[in-house]
Amino acid sequence: MLQKGISVKGAKILILGFSFKENCPDVRNTSVINIYKELLEYETQPAICDPWVDKKEVEDYYGVHLLDIERIYEDKYDAIIAAVAHDCFKDLELQKLQSDNCVIFDCKSIWNKEVSDTRL
């Protein structure tokens, strides 16, 4: 983010996925909560979207509010993290989600290589 001139503090970051694995509602042992907490430590504004999981369960157990997939287009994000490879994320209109110089971290290689800034 810093290489693209994006201030980390206050950055809006969209995390796609919260479940333990793709196309599954199981949130037990999810490592995405660690990403979320780390981003909070850097004073970013992380938002999470996962249409597969029970929003109430996540709020009750983890204290995290999830965005509905329809609502993610209401904002522009400085960074987008593909944390879980749900099929529904493969066809997102990423350009409508990105702010100028948006960084895309494709942790699950769900998009073409040219789309992401870095991938695992």
Automatic annotation (TrEMBL):
Instruction: Tell me the SMART domains matching this sequence.
Output: UDPG_MGDP_dh_C (SM00984)
A Pfam family (short name) is UDPG_MGDP_dh_C
Location of the UDP-glucose/GDP-mannose dehydrogenase C-terminal domain = 14-113
Q: Which family does it belong to?
A: Belongs to the UDP-glucose/GDP-mannose dehydrogenase family.
The name on file for this protein is UDP-glucose/GDP-mannose dehydrogenase C-terminal domain-containing protein
